[in-house]
Amino acid sequence: MTDTFADALEALDPLTPEPAKLSPPTEPKPRRRLPYMAYEHQQQITRLCVRCGLLLMQYGAESATVTDLCRRLGLALGLASVECGIAYNGLTITTIYNNRCITTLRASTTHAINVNIIVQIQRIVLDLESMPVTSTLEHATYRFDEIDRGTYPAKMVAPMVGVACACFAYLAGGDILVCLVTFIASMMGYSLRLWLSNRNFNPFISALIAACFGSIFASTALLLGIGNDPHIAMASSVLWLVPSFPLINSLSDMFKGYMNIGIGRFMFVIILTLSSCIGIVLSLLLLNISHWGVG
After folding, report:
1. I need a surface site. Which of 159, 286, 294, 295 has the fewest CB within 10 A?
2. Which coarse location class describes where this protein primarily resides (predicted)?
3. How far apart are the first and last CA of the chain?
């Protein structure tokens, strides 16, 4: 009797939770599969994405540009996803298509900064995005093979470097003789560094030797009393060694979250600047000059 009464009260109590009703198990929805793509075809696209990323890294593109263009290139060629991992001296690309992943790792080498190549790659990706997927792989490979890697000849660049440094000397208050010494010293220093780089010298050693040689030549203006202020020539003749482009890229990478390569590029800038400073100090010690710079 007591149990029956308790059961009746429990049934009337609105706070008593009702037993949960078990719903029948539902079948998982099948994933949408993309059209068939051969493994070799995906492999070729992966290699092309790596090639794109390496070219961008080698010629001075920032990390965000490398990641974006590699991803867009893979999507334009029909892949489902492209993941990109960037290190200072390497690039890792993973392409995904119908749950099939292909990952490749390539080492990166540093070349001279060439914005023209970066612009050409951007145009290739834009063209591929506007083309049908079925006919873009061969066209993309052909376009990458035909990239123009030409640069201005050294006989043209060296005088322009000299003119730029001479203009800085003029802005600092140097007369015609000081500007002339700056022009010759910076042009010869740049030519020496280019000669060393073409023979695969370490870039830090090349900067050190070029800074030392250029400073020694500019210091002759002080020893011979040429110009109104020879110290201007000594300071202006090595301004071309300032690594402004890598410094901007390193800060941009760190601000955009690519800390690994950003710190690597920043350390490259620091060591390159330190090498140039050591070369300048060596030239001052060799010539027994106690003062350097404007003023």
Report:
1. 295
2. membrane
3. 110
pLDDT, mean of residues 281-290: 86
Is residue 161 within 8 A of residue 68, CB to CB? The reply is no
Tokens of 214: 């250029």
Predicted confidence (pLDDT) per residue in 118-136, tens digit: 999 999 999 988 877 655 7
**Quick check: is 31 in a domain?**
no
- pTM higher than 0.90: no
Cα pseudo-dihedral 235, 238, 244, 246, rounded to 10: -140
Query: Read out DSSP for 158-179?
Result: HHHHHHHHHHHHHHTT--HHHH
d(CA 75, CA 129): 8
Place of tokens 């590029």: 265
* 50 and 165 share one domain: no
Q: Are residues 77 and 96 in the same domain?
A: yes
| pLDDT value for 9 | 47
Q: How far apart are CA 49 and CA 206, in angstroms?
A: 33
Q: Which of these, 120, 146, 102, lies nearest to 56 by C-alpha position?
A: 120
110 Rama sector, left if φ>0, alpha if ψ -120 to 50, beta otherwise: beta
Is residue 73 in some structural domain?
Answer: yes
Higher pLDDT, 109 or 67: 67
The answer to whether residues 128 and 164 belong to one domain is no
- Kindly state whether residue 2 falls inside one of the protein's structural domains: no
Residue 206 Rama label (left phi>0; alpha psi -120 to 50; beta): alpha
User: Domain tally for the chain?
Assistant: 2
- Residue range(s) defining the domain that contains residue 235: 154-287
